[in-house]
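Running this now, will post back.
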Amino acid sequence: MTLAASSWWDDWPKFLPGWLAFLATVGTWAHKAWTRRHKVALGPDDEAVRLALTTARGLFREIIDQRGFEVTWYLAEERRDAGQRLKDLSRRRDDPQLVEAMTLVAQAWADAAAGAPPSRIMMTYGDEPQTPRELRRRRKHDEARERQVDSARVGIERVETALERLNTLERKAFGRS
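Update: finished.
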């Protein structure tokens, strides 16, 4: 059999390993690019994001359980910086949905803090009649606490949305765990 007379079908077994290696290499490159894209979207310190979100969720639940707090409660270090920590961590992410969800959580925290009533210095005794001014102040105080609890409820929903997106990105980057 001469070189011109041989068909391609006679020679395909010797080219098959090369083509399989080429396909495996291209597939590996594509998988690496896909995984890298998701890792970049997830950003550095994904555990720091999860910790900040779960801390915010715990604080929101505490607000709901206690039916709101006065403004002095927000002055503790972990509570004072919670919203800013979420904003800082969101700026290091490349996934727009996660950034938006984290920004909304930070906004809900700011709304809850803004809805906190001022500390009450003077209280009336139980057997003293309350003046109309004190009744208005108490009603205003209760309304502020209700706004704060409503903001906390919205915040919990937004935290759950952010955690779902974070979990989705982690599954895409690292696989199911």
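The CA atoms of residues 84 and 106 lie 7 Å apart. More later if anyone needs it.
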